[in-house]
Amino acid sequence: MSGLWELEEQPERVISVHPEPANRRLSEHLWKARAQEFDLLVRAAHCELVASQRLTVRKAVSATLLGQGQVEQVGRLVEMHEADVVFVDHPLSPVQQRNLETTWNTKVVDRTGLILEIFAARARTREGVLQVELASLNYQLGRLVRSWTHLERQRGGFGFMGGPGERQIELDRRMIRNSIGALERDLEKVKRMRATQRSGRQRKDIPTVALVGYTNAGKSTLFNRLTESGVYVADKLFATLDPTLRLLELPGGLRLMLSDTVGFVQELPHELVDAFRATLEEVIEANLILHIRDASDPMQAEQAKVVHATLQQLGVVGDDAPLVIEVLNKKDKTPGLASFHGEDITTSRLAVSALTGDGLHELTDLLTAWLQRDMHELRLHLAISDGRSLAYCHAHGAILSSEAGDDVIDLVVRMGPADAARFNVQSDIHFLNG
Please, which of 260, 271, 354, 364 could form a disulfide with 223 given CB 3.0 to 4.6 Å? Predict the structure, then answer.
């Protein structure tokens, strides 16, 4: 992977600070897991984490969030480790950020800023770049501060992460809003293009199955295993940002579009959810959602809640919402993990290993059963010379039986509603529309 962060000769020396509001009443287990996840995000930003400090905030201070003693405590850590950046696992107001930077004499970035930086470094397609730019400008709109100085060295990238020419410029509100308007228009074009593509798939009766889940749950590994694709995979948070669609062909002539999407995380900034809505419409408009869970992660129950909450934020709820099936991944790391097959496929829970392929046959069998729920079985009486209709049946359906006579061939074929609708009934003979 090549990214903005990797253009640095040496990674930044950083400190992570984990303010723990006393009124949240989270268990020690949950707070420890949250802190570990934030430190993983810091490392994902190609930084050298030299210290990590958890602080209990009994009463938030409007000027600095942290109490005076805590500010001094972190300041000593900054001086001791000669830190370039302090990442704070909590939203900071522009005033709080500026005051802490002045006091600590170093850059300060909150949780939203950190995730935005990671997204900016990972986006590859024009669509992904546009979405990250939009999210970053919306984030800056309430701040109107110059570019983060820990990104001061000349590099490629976006205006808000630019080189010496941009970093001294104060972005005024009108410039940002104009830029936001232009980006929103560009993303609206992307949205219309995706809608056109979805409409084409629907006309061809090709349903869409979306992979969703917590970041680093193994979605892209599973996607590659099923579709034999080469989507970028890494054991890091937010390895996949840009959406990918691939055609998956199943036994019996069945086909579906499989969609790999960006992973979710706790408190995913609303700027990113809003900006990535064009991409996540593949989830909203999907016919089926596979919720991929990391069965080996002790925090999987909490992660599942985050995924469900994000789906609700996207509006994937209600009677018209797509079906959701849970897939427990990383079976190879979870001894004894087994699938559960309910009376209906939507109550089933599959255990798989995307890495080794164990259990994937159960997943493809389930997808096949789901596709076949709306399939039509047709009895066709075709002339031997009607090679066009026969070829269509083989290409778009599953031949269940075939019996050839002197001049005709009797077929029983299973196919989807749109393909079945191409045949008209005249007497006892079915002809392909033409």
Answer: 260
